[in-house]
C-alpha cells in the first residue's frame, strides 16, 4: 500500500521538475529570444521606391572589447540590446551590433540596398535563419570599392526579399574614432533602381566636372608654352588639384587606385589639399604680385603657407590621432584663408584690378562651399543638387581666374607692343643722333691732323694730340651706337670669310704695344700655332678683340700684365684675354653684358667707359 501510494507521488514530483526545466530551456532559446525580443520589424506592403531610415527604431549592443563574433551574438543569453542613449560614449575602437527584421507583405519581390554611417570604418551584414548563417556581406571605406557588392566609396550592401518572405539581419559596425551615439543607428534601406540611377548620374556629373577643369588646366599649359609665363603653370595645378580633390571625395579614384584603399585614403587626401594650398599661394603671388605690393605683409602669409602645407603629413608621422589632426588642420586652413583674403580686400580698396578679380573668385568658391555644407543638414545630401555646390563654386572660381589670365595675356601683349615700339623708337633715335655726331667728328679730325703735322711747339702739339685722341674716342663710341642700332633693326651683316686667324690676331694685338709701353704694362701674346683656319668676320672680330683689350688696359695698373692666348679645344678656337687688374666683383658679373652698365671705378681706372663695348 505504501509503495503504491508513494510511487505516484514520486512520479508526480519528477514530472513537474522536468517540465519546469523544459520551460526554462525553451524560454532561453537564442533564436526565439532574438526574434521575439527587442528587434525592430519593417514591413513592405507595396513597391514604393522610397528610402527608409531606421535611426530611431533599432536596438544596439556595444562591444567595447571587440571580442564577440556573429555566433556569440546569436547564441549568447547574456547580451542585452538597448536603445541608444546620449550617455553612450565608448572609447574607440569599438563595435556596435544591431538587428532588423524585414517582412515583405507585397505581391512582388524587392531588391534593395542597406546603407550605413560614413563614420564607421567597416560594416558587416549577416543574414541568419533558424540559427544558421545564410549570407554575409561587408561594406565601408576600409574596403576597396571593387571588392564590394556595390562598387562605390559609400557603404552599401544588397538585400533581396521575396513576396511573403521574412528575413532577420544582424549588423556589425566598427568605429575607430570618437563619434556621438546618433551615428550608431545610421542604417537605412534604399530601392536598388533609384540608387543605381543616382550613382550613374553622379558619375556622369563628376566626369563632366573633371572634363571642364582639365580643359582649363590643359589650355593653361598651352598658354604657358606660348607665352612662357609661370603663372599659367600655377593655374593649371589649381585645376588639377581641384579635380583630384572631388574625384577622391566621391570615391571615383577607386577605379585607378589599387591596394589597401583605407590605408592610402587619408595621406592621399592630405596630399591633394596640400598641393591645392601651395598652388593657390603661388598663383596669388604671381598674379597679384603680393610680394611687390605688400612687402611687409608677404612674410606672414609665406610663413602661414609653409606651416599649413606639410602640417597634416608631419603630424600624422608624429602619431597625432586623426580627430585631433583633422580639427587642428581645419583650424589652420581657416586662418590661412583669412590671411589670404585680408591683402586682397586691402588691395581691392586701392582699385587693384588683379586683387579684385581674385577676391570675387574666392567669394564664389566660398559661397559654393556654404551650399555644399548646407546639404549635410538634409536627410540625404546625395538627394539634392546642393551636394554639387562646392564643385560649382570651384568652376566659377577657375572660370573667373581663367578670364583674369586672358586679361593678363592682353596686358602682356600690350606691354610687349609698347616695349617693341619704344625699342624701335630708341634704335631710330640712336641711329639718327649717331649720324649727326659722326659727320662733324669726321670733319673735325682732318683739320686737326693737318695742324698736328705742321706744329713744332711741343706743348701745343701735346694738346692737339689729346684733342685728336678724344675725337677718335668719340667717333668709336658713335660707331658702336650705330652698330647697336643695326643689331636692333636686324640689319647687321656678319660678312664672314675663311682665313688664317693667327696673322690677323697678331696684327690686332701688336697695335696695342705702344699703349702697353706707355702705361708700363707687359702685353703678351701666347699663340703656339702658325696657322688656324677659321670662318670669321675681320671687322667684327677686330671690334671684339679691341673692346676686350681696351677694358683690360683700362683696369690694369702700371706694372701689371695683359695676356692674350689662343688654344684649340675639340675643333674650336678658344681666345682668352686676361689681366692682373682689379677683376670683376661677383655682384657686377651678371650685368657686364647689359647695355650701358658700368662697374664702380677705382683709382686704377683712367676714364669712364660707355657701357656699350661688351654689350656690342
Task: Outline the structure in words.
There is one protein chain. The chain has helices spanning about 1-25, 30-35, 70-75, 190-225, 230-250, 260-290, 290-295, 300-315, 320-350, 355-375, 390-455, 460-490, 500-510, 515-520, 540-555, and strands at about 40-45, 50-55, 60-65, 95-105, 110-115, 120-130, 130-140, 155-160, 165-175, 190, 495-500, 520-525, 535, 560-570, 570-580. It starts with a helix and ends in a 37-residue tail after the last strand. It is built from 15 helices and 15 strands. By secondary structure, the protein is an alpha+beta fold. Helices cover about 55% and strands about 15% of the residues. Helix 4 runs parallel beside helix 11, helix 5 (about 230-250) runs antiparallel to helix 6 and helix 8 runs antiparallel to helix 9.
Q: Summarize model confidence as the mean pLDDT.
A: 80
How does the helix and strand content classify structurally?
Answer: alpha+beta
Number of separate strands: 15
Overall outline: elongated
- Strand-residue proportion: 15-25%
Largest sheet: 6 strands, mixed
Q: Helical residue percent? A: 40-55%
Q: What is the H-and-E element order?
A: HHEEEHEEEEEEEHHHHHHHHHEHHEEHEE
* Low-pLDDT residue intervals, each spanning 5 or more residues: 1-36, 255-266
Count of alpha/pi helices: 15
From the alpha carbons, calculate the radius of gyration and give it in angstroms. Answer: 44 Å
Amino acid at each position: 500500500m505504501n509503495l503504491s501510494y508513494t510511487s505516484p507521488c514520486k512520479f508526480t514530483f519528477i514530472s513537474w521538475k522536468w517540465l519546469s526545466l523544459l520551460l526554462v530551456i525553451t524560454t532561453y532559446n537564442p533564436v526565439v529570444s532574438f526574434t521575439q525580443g527587442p528587434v525592430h520589424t519593417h514591413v513592405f506592403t507595396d513597391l514604393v521606391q522610397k528610402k527608409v531610415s531606421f535611426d530611431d527604431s533599432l536596438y544596439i549592443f556595444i562591444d567595447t572589447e571587440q571580442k564577440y563574433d556573429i555566433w556569440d551574438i546569436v547564441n549568447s543569453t547574456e547580451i542585452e540590446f538597448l536603445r541608444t542613449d546620449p550617455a553612450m560614449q565608448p572609447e574607440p575602437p569599438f563595435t556596435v551590433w544591431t538587428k532588423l527584421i524585414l517582412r515583405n507583405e507585397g505581391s512582388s519581390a524587392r531588391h534593395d540596398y542597406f546603407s550605413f554611417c560614413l563614420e564607421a570604418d567597416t560594416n558587416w551584414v549577416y543574414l541568419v535563419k533558424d540559427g544558421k548563417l545564410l549570407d554575409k556581406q561587408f561594406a565601408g571605406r576600409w574596403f576597396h570599392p571593387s571588392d564590394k557588392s556595390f562598387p562605390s566609396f559609400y557603404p552599401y550592401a544588397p538585400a533581396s526579399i521575396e513576396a511573403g518572405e521574412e528575413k532577420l539581419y544582424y549588423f556589425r559596425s566598427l568605429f575607430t574614432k570618437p563619434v556621438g551615439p546618433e551615428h550608431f543607428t545610421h542604417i537605412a534601406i534604399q530601392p536598388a533602381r533609384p540608387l543605381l540611377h543616382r550613382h550613374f548620374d553622379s558619375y556622369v556629373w563628376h566626369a563632366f566636372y573633371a572634363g571642364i577643369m582639365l580643359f582649363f588646366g590643359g589650355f593653361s599649359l598651352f598658354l604657358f608654352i606660348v607665352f612662357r609665363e609661370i603663372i599659367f603653370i600655377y593655374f593649371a595645378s589649381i585645376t588639377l588639384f581641384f579635380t583630384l580633390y572631388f574625384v577622391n571625395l566621391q570615391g571615383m579614384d577607386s577605379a585607378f587606385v589599387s591596394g589597401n584603399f583605407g590605408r592610402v585614403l587619408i595621406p592621399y587626401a592630405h596630399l591633394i589639399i596640400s598641393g591645392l594650398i601651395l598652388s593657390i599661394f603661388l598663383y596669388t603671388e604671381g598674379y597679384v604680385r603680393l610680394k611687390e605690393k605688400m612687402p611687409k605683409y608677404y612674410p606672414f602669409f609665406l610663413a602661414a603657407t609653409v606651416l599649413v602645407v606639410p602640417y597634416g603629413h608631419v603630424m600624422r608621422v608624429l602619431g597625432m590621432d586623426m580627430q585631433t589632426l583633422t580639427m587642428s588642420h581645419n583650424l589652420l586652413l581657416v586662418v590661412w584663408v583669412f590671411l589670404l583674403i585680408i591683402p586682397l580686400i586691402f588691395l581691392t580698396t586701392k582699385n587693384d584690378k588683379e586683387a579684385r578679380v581674385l577676391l570675387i573668385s574666392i567669394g564664389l568658391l566660398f559661397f559654393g562651399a556654404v551650399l555644399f555644407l548646407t546639404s549635410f543638414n538634409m536627410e540625404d545630401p546625395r538627394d539634392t543638387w546642393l551636394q554639387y555646390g562646392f564643385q560649382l563654386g570651384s568652376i566659377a572660381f577657375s572660370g573667373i581666374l581663367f578670364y583674369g589670365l586672358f586679361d593678363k595675356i592682353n596686358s602682356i601683349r600690350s606691354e610687349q607692343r609698347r616695349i617693341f615700339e619704344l625699342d624701335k623708337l630708341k634704335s631710330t633715335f640712336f641711329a639718327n643722333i649717331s649720324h649727326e655726331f659722326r659727320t662733324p667728328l669726321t670733319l673735325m679730325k682732318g683739320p686737326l691732323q693737318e695742324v698736328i703735322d705742321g706744329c713744332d711747339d711741343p706743348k701745343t702739339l701735346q694738346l692737339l694730340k689729346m684733342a685728336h685722341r678724344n675725337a677718335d674716342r668719340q667717333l668709336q663710341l658713335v660707331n658702336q651706337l650705330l652698330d647697336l642700332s643695326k643689331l636692333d633693326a636686324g640689319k647687321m651683316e656678319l660678312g664672314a670669310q675663311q682665313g688664317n686667324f693667327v696673322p690677323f690676331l697678331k696684327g690686332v694685338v701688336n697695335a696695342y704695344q705702344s699703349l702697353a709701353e706707355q702705361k708700363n704694362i707687359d702685353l703678351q701674346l701666347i699663340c703656339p700655332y702658325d696657322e688656324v683656319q677659321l670662318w670669321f668676320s675681320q671687322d667684327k672680330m677686330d671690334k671684339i678683340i679691341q673692346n676686350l683689350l681696351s677694358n683690360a688696359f683700362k683696369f690694369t695698373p702700371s706694372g701689371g700684365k695683359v695676356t692674350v692666348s689662343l688654344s684649340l679645344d675639340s675643333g674650336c678656337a678658344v681666345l682668352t684675354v686676361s689681366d692682373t687688374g682689379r677683376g670683376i666683383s661677383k655682384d657686377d658679373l651678371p650685368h657686364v653684358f647689359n647695355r650701358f652698365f658700368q662697374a664702380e671705378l677705382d683709382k686704377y681706372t683712367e676714364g669712364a667707359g660707355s657701357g656699350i663695348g661688351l654689350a656690342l
